[in-house]
Design brief:
InterPro entries: Homeodomain-like_sf, HTH_AraC, PchR_regulatory_protein, Tscrpt_reg_AraC-type_HTH. Pfam families: HTH_18. It comes from Flammeovirga aprica JL-4. The protein folds into 2 domains: 5-216, Jelly Rolls (Sandwich), CATH 2.60.120.10; 224-328, Arc Repressor Mutant, subunit A. The protein has 12 helices and 13 strands. It has helices at 15-26, 137-143, 148-158, 169-182, 189-216, 224-238, 247-254, 258-269, 273-291, 296-302, 308-319, 323-328; strands spanning 5-10, 29-30, 34-39, 42-49, 55-64, 67-72, 81-87, 92-95, 102-104, 108-113, 119-122, 126-135, 163-166. The strands form 2 sheets. It has an 8-stranded antiparallel beta sheet with strand order 2-3-4-5-12-7-10-13, sandwiched between helices. A 5-stranded mixed beta sheet has the order 1-6-11-8-9, with helices on both faces. It is globular.
């Protein structure tokens, strides 16, 4: 466990509110959509470009003396996608509810939707250069050649999974051009970066879509109707942590045999039913303990564990440390 860390709760309702919340959390000098100078995290140069609707690109350079945990708690829009590239040396960790954090290393890309509850961790004592992209639904559909089907396939996957992949030499070249332009005083700097950013987003979406499509094509040719049914089942399972239904009751509710229910669910969502539920419960608990001052006993009850000892045992088995250890080593400054 890392003691020297800071939590940052972002408000991504608008770009202005995003940068206001970053500035409020870490300090530094804010000039428009740019935050520079010494902050509680270390020295930073964060800049965002959002001159067209439904699209944002940020270029971020940081030398960190604290570990930063970043959680987005305000972007509830339909179908937004986030992409983050680690440029150069350095590592970003993604907490997706699994016991082991996912690593995003040099020249790798992480992609996830705003619906997916992902906490990003930027470890201390490293210099990071990051390029981030945020695309709203309309921009995504446009970049996918106006294919609603392609968009739905991609967003359905990203609502439950994160995708980490190596970037190509072509996209690396575009990123290097973007960073070079950011550091220049060329006329039309912002417009050029937006143009390059859209080209980068288009290449990333092509790469991401083909990878997701290839993965999903292995799901035993499940029909769209059946896919929608299993997403209804998923929502039904997660609607009330205090009254989680049994497999037999779910099978009866939706008119499906128990064996088929278990096999299809694992095929679509990548986990057995109760492991899937536990993952969601633990990630919600981790976020509440780390990002709020809600008492641990109340957190346990909110995610369906009436007995604190049972909750602590399951939490430790899942993450490798107890809820109390997480709480004691968390600096709450996001509220």
């Amino acid at each position: 466990m890392i003691k020297n860390k800071t939590n940052i709760l972002l408000d991504s309702t608008t770009i202005d509110s995003l940068y206001a919340s970053i500035h409020q959390n870490i300090g530094g000098e804010r000039v428009g959509n740019r935050i520079i100078g010494n902050t509680i995290l270390g020295n930073v140069n964060l800049e965002s470009f959002n001159h067209i609707q439904d699209f944002n690109i940020s270029i971020n350079h940081m030398t960190l003396n604290k570990t930063a945990h970043i959680y987005n708690n305000a972007d509830n829009s339909e179908g937004n996608v986030y992409m983050l590239v680690v440029k150069g040396d350095g590592t970003v960790l993604a907490n997706t509810g699994e016991r082991k954090l996912k690593e995003v290393k040099k020249n790798e890309l992480i992609v996830y939707s705003n619906i997916n509850k992902v906490i990003l961790e930027f470890p201390m004592n490293q210099s990071l250069s990051l390029v981030g992209l945020r695309l709203n639904r309309e921009q995504l559909i446009s970049l996918l050649n106006h294919s609603e089907d392609a968009y739905q396939e991609m967003i359905t996957y990203l609502n439950e999974n994160v995708l980490i992949d190596q970037i190509t030499s072509e996209t690396l070249h575009i990123i290097e051009e973007i960073i070079k332009i950011q550091n220049s005083t060329v006329i039309g700097r912002s417009s050029i970066i937006i143009g390059k950013g859209l080209e980068l987003a288009g290449r990333f979406l092509t790469q991401v879509y083909h990878k997701i499509h290839n993965q999903r094509s292995n799901i035993n040719h499940i029909s769209q109707e059946e896919m929608e049914l299993y997403h209804e089942i998923k929502d039904y399972l997660l609607q009330d942590y205090e009254n989680i239904p049994t497999i037999s009751s779910v099978a009866k509710e939706f008119g499906i045999g128990e064996t088929k229910l278990k096999e299809r669910f694992k095929s679509i969502f990548g986990k057995p039913i109760f492991k899937f539920i536990t993952t969601h419960r633990m990630l919600d608990a981790h976020r509440l303990i780390e990002m709020t001052d809600t008492p641990i006993s109340r957190v346990a009850k909110e995610i369906g564990y009436p007995h604190l000892s049972k909750f602590s045992m399951v939490f430790k088995k899942h993450y490798g440390y107890t809820p109390s250890e997480l709480r004691k080593n968390t600096v709450i400054n996001a509220y």
